[in-house]
Design brief:
- The complex is a heterodimer of chains A (306) and B (369).
- Chain A has 306 residues and is mainly α.
- Helices cover 69% and strands 2% of the residues of chain A.
- The longest helix of chain A is centred in the N-terminal third of the chain and has 39 residues, at 35-73.
- In chain B, helix 1 packs antiparallel against helix 10.
- Chain B is an alpha+beta fold.
- Chain B starts with 49 loop residues before the first helix and ends in an 11-residue tail after the last helix.
- Classes of the chains: A mainly alpha (306), B alpha+beta (369).
- Chain A: Pfam families: PhoLip_ATPase_C (PF16212).
Chain lengths: 306, 369
């Protein structure tokens, strides 16, 4: 009886008056059989969606971050010189990009729960392994590699001949590092903004907060206060102020962002327009319905219940 | 939050442990009915519709193309002249200097290059030296410096960091400044002369201050010994870098440009990101609004050829350039903006066409069951 739940992918046990042995051997347990419907169609489906989006984004942002060093290798004699500041490398995955994707993994919903129960066919992508398989994995990786190419070669093309408006060249290592790092953080933040389908207040806080934290920490670490305490550790003194005060650098970052994001946008729009999945159609109709109900809802709130 | 406030909801048939015992002893396992825990938080749910995506592409196209045109036009108006003076060809004036080189020679080799300007250079002219195939971005090279020593720390002056090896000590004396970056400092001297139509040579005055970052010059690089202006005394018991002709306290007679705060030294220590780079050497300031800074005519560049590049097949060049708000001559950015803007606009048109012809004009009522 309870060995079947141990052998299955997911074991679900029902705690009842005959004891809790099935519950102890299972991954999920609840008290009534009818809760199984919500477990599968709402929570199971959402969980599958969130995991797949989380995984794809995670591989993407790390490939975009790391492959830049591969391209830089061709220009630094393959000496394993990092493109970014050491502290940026440490903080990238922990501070700058972890919370937005975590929030997406916790809160994302493509359709609300009532629709999930109404259209059981929405459960099919999970059964058919459609949202994260070998093909989707390679698409995520390819997108990450493409982003890394853009993030290296656009600053390379611009900064190798650029100078500041006071004549000092911009081709130094620290300016290149700050430009590439800033472009990277902005591009992956825009990407998570595109991936997030359900923007709660927490998502807003995490996404904008992570960007704000990046700039705060950047300016703090490149300030003279930290330099005077640890000169050898914080030797990027003045880079942030110098680099991010140049219009050329911001133009470079904007250009890199558009080149990275525009194909993604076009591709996703075409997919939605030409071959919408059931979840896309349900989501669209749901939002159209909500928009239509909004002016009536304000009037009718006092009258009938929900 | 007391659990007993929720225990009355028996319509779900919820059994919580021993049935029948009411009151505060029953632990209610029902999750809180809050928006957060029931995943009902108010949220914005964006959708990629034609009404948002297509205008976005057109707007990006319409913004980027004029920016690109502006950048390209600004860049085209900048004057730049580049002269390679490595001297690898037999016909080059610097050929003999490039071939016969030894570290110990006390008489420097000189060569003169003649060039002419067809267009005058207006406003401030910036003079750069450029190197090719010089990997200032090699990992071992980049970390071969001691930032504490360069900041004027006395202890680091006497005991440089281990990262500086093998340029850390010389004949048992610590090297100041230590490291491979300092050791390979560029030490060619370049002088520019204007040759009058009747043959008289006038030297063009250079400004050698203001070429480094302000934070570098005033915060990062400090001479040891605080306000002691006698740098010879401050740097005694240290050795000069192996490949230098002069010691660090002999770099300039001006005490504000001597020692570690010498601006040429600071400019060199700011390592370049790529193997072909240029660094600011001197500034030629404009005289007044009437005469151009570098008028049309013939010029001669006198090079004191100290820096050997033949061993790594590098090249040396001197660059004269004017500056605008976006910096020097940089057509890449203008061309890239125009290209990306056009592609975005074109993509917008293509998407509009596809959406019109094949798009799913879903009005919300036809969901397949």
């Amino acid at each position: 009886c309870f060995s079947s739940s141990a052998a299955a992918h997911i074991g679900v046990g029902i705690s009842g008056q005959e004891g809790i042995q099935a519950v102890l051997a299972s991954d999920y347990s609840f008290s009534q059989f009818r809760f199984l419907q919500r477990l599968l169609l709402v929570h199971g489906r959402w969980s599958y969606l969130r995991m797949c989006r989380f995984l794809c984004y995670f591989f993407y942002k790390n490939f975009a971050f790391t492959m830049v060093h591969f391209w830089f290798g061709f220009f630094c004699g393959f000496s394993a010189q990092t493109v970014y500041d050491q502290y940026f490398i440490t903080l990238y995955n922990i501070v700058y990009t972890s919370l937005p994707v975590l929030a997406m993994g916790l809160f994302d919903q493509d359709v609300p729960e009532q629709r999930s129960l109404e259209y059981p066919k929405l459960y099919e992508p999970g059964q058919l392994n459609l949202l994260f398989n070998k093909r989707e994995f390679f698409i995520c990786i390819a997108q990450g590699i493409y982003t890394s190419v853009v993030l290296f070669f656009i600053p390379y093309g611009v900064l190798s001949h650029a100078t500041q408006s006071n004549g000092v060249p911009l081709a130094d290592y620290q300016t290149f590092a700050v430009t590439t790092a800033t472009a990277l953080v902005i591009v992956v933040s825009v990407q998570i903004a595109l991936d997030t389908g359900y923007w709660t207040a927490i998502n807003h806080f995490f996404i904008w907060g992570s960007l704000g934290t990046y700039f705060t920490i950047l300016f703090a670490m490149h300030s003279s206060i930290l330099f005077n305490i640890f000169p050898k550790q914080f030797h990027f003194l003045g880079s942030a102020h110098n680099t991010l005060g140049q219009p050329v650098v911001w133009l470079t970052i904007a250009l890199a962002t558009v080149i990275c994001i525009a194909p993604v946008l076009a591709f996703r729009f075409l997919k939605l327009d030409l071959k919408p999945q059931l979840s896309d159609t349900v989501r669209y109709t749901q939002l159209v319905l909500q928009k239509k109900q909004k002016p009536c809802g304000r009037v009718g709130r006092g009258v009938g219940g929900g | 939050m007391m659990a007993s406030s929720y225990s009355a909801k028996e319509e779900d048939g919820h059994h919580s442990g021993p049935a029948g015992l009411g009151g505060a002893a029953i632990r209610n396992r029902k999750p809180d009915n809050t928006a957060f825990k029931q995943q009902r938080l108010p949220a914005w749910q964006p959708i990629l519709t034609a009404g948002t995506v297509l205008p976005a592409f057109f707007i990006i196209g319409l913004i980027f193309i004029p920016i690109g045109v502006g950048l390209y036009v600004t860049s085209s108006n900048i004057r730049e002249l580049e002269i390679d003076y490595t001297g690898t060809d037999l016909s080059s004036p610097c050929f003999t200097c490039s071939q016969s080189f030894s570290w110990n020679s006390s008489t420097p080799c000189r060569c003169v290059l003649f060039f002419s300007l067809d267009q005058p250079f207006e406003s401030n002219v910036f003079m750069y030296y450029g190197l090719s195939n010089f990997y200032q971005n090699h990992r071992r090279y980049v970390k071969s410096r001691d930032d504490s020593q360069l900041n004027g720390d006395e202890r680091s002056l006497k005991e440089p960091s281990k990262e500086c090896e093998p340029y850390r000590t010389n004949e048992n004396k610590p090297i100041a400044p230590c490291g491979a970056i300092a050791n390979s400092m560029f030490n060619d001297t370049l002088d520019l002369f204007y040759i009058d139509p009747n043959g008289t040579k006038t030297q063009i005055p250079f400004i050698k201050k203001g070429i480094a970052w302000w934070t570098d010059k005033h915060v990062k690089f400090r001479n040891p010994g605080g306000s002691n202006l006698n740098l010879t005394a401050v740097f005694k018991d240290t050795a000069k870098p192996v490949n230098w002709h002069k010691a660090v306290y002999e770099l300039d007679t001006d005490s504000e440009n001597n020692g570690f705060i010498n601006e040429d030294f600071i400019v060199w220590m700011r390592t370049a990101a790529l193997p072909t780079f240029r660094k600011l050497y001197r500034i030629i300031q404009k005289k007044n609004n009437m005469t151009p800074t570098l008028p049309r005519g013939n010029y001669s560049l006198e090079v004191t050829y100290n820096y050997p590049v033949r061993s790594f097949e590098g090249r040396k060049r001197v660059i004269f350039s004017t500056i605008s708000w976006m910096g020097g001559k940089n057509p890449f950015l203008g061309i890239a903006y125009m290209t990306v803007g056009s592609i975005c606009f074109f993509l917008g048109v293509v998407l509009l066409f596809i959406h019109h012809k094949y798009g799913n004009r879903n009005n919300g009522s036809d969901i397949p069951s």
